[in-house]
Amino acid sequence: MAIITGTEQDDTLTASPPLGQSYMDEENTFHGLGGRNVIYGGNLKDTIYIGTNSDQTEMNYVDSGAGDDLIIGGDGESPQMIVHDEIHAGTGNDLVWAWAGDDLIYGDDGNDEIHAGEGADTLYGGNDNNSLYGDEGNDTIHGDAGDDVLRGGTGVDTLYGGDGDDYLFADYDAASSEAETTGALMYGGAGADRIYATSGDDTLDGGDGNDVIYGYGGQDTINGGGGQDFLYGHDGNDIINGGADKDRIYGGDGADSLNGSGGHDYIYGDTGNDVLTGEDGYDSLYGEGGDDTLYGGLHNDNLYGGSGNDELHGGTQHDNLYGGDGNDILNGGDGIDDLYGGAGSDVFVLDSADGYSDNIHDFNLGENDVLDMGELLDNMMSNIGDYLQFDDSNGTDTVISVDRDGSGTANGWEQVATLHDVTALDMQAMYTNGNII
């Protein structure tokens, strides 16, 4: 074992000096002291105190070499001392404490634990499974390969998980107004990642893989990316996009914008006045609390408004729309749709004579439900009976047909909806009383 000590000047300390005995295969201790230090460790377990370089224009440089090394910034006793270091941990399972200063740290090979300390630091985990801590300051952390744990600490941090199944934590100080306002940038990369944000306005991207992302407070932007993701906005007015594959999206509190994108998604608005969009895939949308707007998208979707005065749009193909409580608006869109208004005064929109006929299952004049046929009756000039026909001849249901030009010819009538379990409606009275608009 050797103790290798520098001076107060600029030194190069190495376990294998050009002249003299080599200590490459011993467990050494290096003391950088003052000046700008360049330190090269050996093949075994070294302890390196980088030194107290007061020159803020140049970094100390450390390559610890092989072995499970301990690398400590400054003099090992003054964590507030500002010293800028470039550290290469080398091979082995290393422990790095950089302390104050704007540091550049590479974990290289091995399962490393790196603490950046104060300052705006940049960390690269390298290969294997690393634990990387930004601590104080606005840090940038790259997990690189392996299953890594990244913790930003206080400050406005940017975290990249890289390959592997990573855990990303922002770890903001709740008392920091900068953190609460700005938020973190966190990117999971490839692999099944878990991302935990802050009370600030965060930007979170899971990347490829089956990710779990929690936005917590603030107005967050969350992208699941590829894979089957679990995305939770929590508090604040969040924007969440599921990405490809089958995702579960929870808006949480606040007025959220939730988009399933590709895949068969389950989307939950929770409280607040939310906008839910299924887009591609066979989606299930749940508005839950608040006055929500739901768009099914391109395939056979299920839309549930929940409580509140909701607006439901099925989109294309065969959709099921359930208004729930409140005064809801239901528009099946293209295809043969099934509409259930639920409690409250609901509006059923019939705006397309496209060869398909919707099924309305709980039309109730006692709750002052309305048929909105404005687009189908926009050419109506006089008698509504020339343009609209109710047929309850089967004794159970009422079939609604329209003749858009009012000619009354047999070929002019198009079936647009069936009111199930409803008969004996007075069409003219409904029009006069505003139940047909």
Give a description of the structure.
With 437 residues, the chain is mainly β. It has a 22-stranded mixed β-sheet, with no helix packed on it. The chain has a 19-stranded parallel β-sheet, with no helix packed on it. The chain starts with a strand and ends with a helix. The chain is rod-shaped, with a radius of gyration of 33 Å.
Topology:
Elements: E1 3-5, E2 11-14, E3 29-31, E4 37-40, E5 47-49, E6 60-63, E7 70-72, E8 85-88, E9 95-97, E10 104-106, E11 113-115, E12 122-124, E13 131-133, E14 140-142, E15 149-151, E16 158-160, E17 167-169, H1 177-182, E18 185-187, E19 194-196, E20 203-205, E21 212-214, E22 221-223, E23 230-232, E24 239-241, E25 248-250, E26 257-259, E27 266-268, E28 275-277, E29 284-286, E30 293-295, E31 302-304, E32 311-313, E33 320-322, E34 329-331, E35 338-340, E36 347-349, E37 358-360, E38 370-372, E39 388-391, E40 398-402, E41 414-419, H2 427-433
Short description:
This protein is an all-beta fold and 437 residues long. The relative contact order is 0.04.
Count of discrete alpha- or pi-helical segments spanning 4 or more residues: 2
Q: What is the average per-residue confidence, as pLDDT, rounded to a whole number?
A: 93
Q: Structural class of the secondary structure composition?
A: mainly beta
Count the strands? Answer: 41
Gap from first CA to last CA: 92 Å
CA radius of gyration: 33 Å
Low-confidence stretches: none
Major sheet characteristics: 22 strands, mixed
Features:
437 residues, mainly beta, 22-stranded mixed beta sheet, 19-stranded parallel beta sheet, 2 helices, 3% helix, rod-shaped
